[in-house]
Q: What sequence folds into this?
């Protein structure tokens, strides 16, 4: 199992510690570093900044939101950064949810998410292969565009720039069993959310029969500390925000996943508190048990024991959410 560093997205502004942390991860032998986006900083620009200050560590987006760019624009970002970094790019994509797609990007959330994802992937793959002009007779991502409000002058095009790698790895963030099953068919890897190594079945039976060479790269908070409850607080804050605030009360994929993992009552309570403006109470309502099973928090010996569960399953890349160089070093030592 390889290690990655997950930096996430910015808060109120850029984090001056991200580049030194990525450089330390590279020195420690980490395989990859990952950036994200929500509705603030984008995923590709910070990754490019890191690429210019590192030399070997792979560069991943976890995730770049599909609604933020047309699939051809996303492919252009990926092939450009792949060239500039000497072939280190890992493209992680996610559909996001209705709140973000419609509220931030101003476009309808697809009524058939699986089809929209499949078409998006098709376009990205065609651009990266560069075998022929890109053409898709699609419902959500048609190329060329033939809609009633178009000019009718569009024509299929090939990228001017030759991609460095036709097989640049593309991973998908997926939560529901049908989405995960499709991901195993059409992508090179999967970015699971809330991975609990003791219960992979919540994602469906496909997890037991993944293709050879398929990447499984979940994120996990990693913190070496004596006080487990205190170490779990950032995990609970993240969960409170995602489960309570990243979606509508009637449609929240994160809350639905938590419910499938056996915490349905708690998930609905977190939503209720968060949407009522009681964010601190929502965070405290996150069960320690849930935060703990998707994390690696505690003394070194405890993390070493729990790390064996992660290595025993299908995970190929553990992406550590940890701003702490000491925790990154300990994890590298334990995984060596």
A:
């Amino acid at each position: 199992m390889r290690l990655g560093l997950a930096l996430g997205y910015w808060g109120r502004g850029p984090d001056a510690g991200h580049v030194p942390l990525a450089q330390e991860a590279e020195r420690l032998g980490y395989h990859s570093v990952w950036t994200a986006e929500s509705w603030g900083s984008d995923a590709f620009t910070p990754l490019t900044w890191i690429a210019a200050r590192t030399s070997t560590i792979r560069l991943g987006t976890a995730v770049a939101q599909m609604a933020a760019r047309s699939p051809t624009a996303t492919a252009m970002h990926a092939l450009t950064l792949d060239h500039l970094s000497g072939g280190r790019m890992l493209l992680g994509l996610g559909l996001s949810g209705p709140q973000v797609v419609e509220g931030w990007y101003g476009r309808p959330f697809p009524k058939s998410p699986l089809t929209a994802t499949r078409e998006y992937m098709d376009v990205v793959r065609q651009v990266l292969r560069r075998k022929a002009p890109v053409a898709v007779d699609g419902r959500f991502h048609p190329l060329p565009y033939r809609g009633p409000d178009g000019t009718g002058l569009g024509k299929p095009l090939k990228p001017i720039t030759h991609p460095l790698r036709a097989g640049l790895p593309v991973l998908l963030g997926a939560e529901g069993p049908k989405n995960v099953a499709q991901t195993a068919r059409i992508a090179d890897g999967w970015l699971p959310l809330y991975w609990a190594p003791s219960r992979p079945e919540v994602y469906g039976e496909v997890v037991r029969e993944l293709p050879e060479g398929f990447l499984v790269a979940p994120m996990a908070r990693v913190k070496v500390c004596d006080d487990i409850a205190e170490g779990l607080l950032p995990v609970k804050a993240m969960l409170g925000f995602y489960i309570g605030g990243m979606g509508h009360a009637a449609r929240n994929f994160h809350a639905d996943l938590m419910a499938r993992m056996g915490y349905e009552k708690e998930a609905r309570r977190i939503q209720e508190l968060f949407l009522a403006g009681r964010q601190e109470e929502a965070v405290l309502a996150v069960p320690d048990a849930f935060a703990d099973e998707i994390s690696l928090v505690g003394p070194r010996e405890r993390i070493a024991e729990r790390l064996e569960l992660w290595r025993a399953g299908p995970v190929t890349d553990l992406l550590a959410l940890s701003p702490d160089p000491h925790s990154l070093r300990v994890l590298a030592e334990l995984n060596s």
In short: The chain is about 40% helix and 15% strand. Residues 2-222+299-334 form a domain with the TIM Barrel fold (CATH 3.20.20.30). The chain has a mean pLDDT of 95. The longest strand covers residues 2-8.
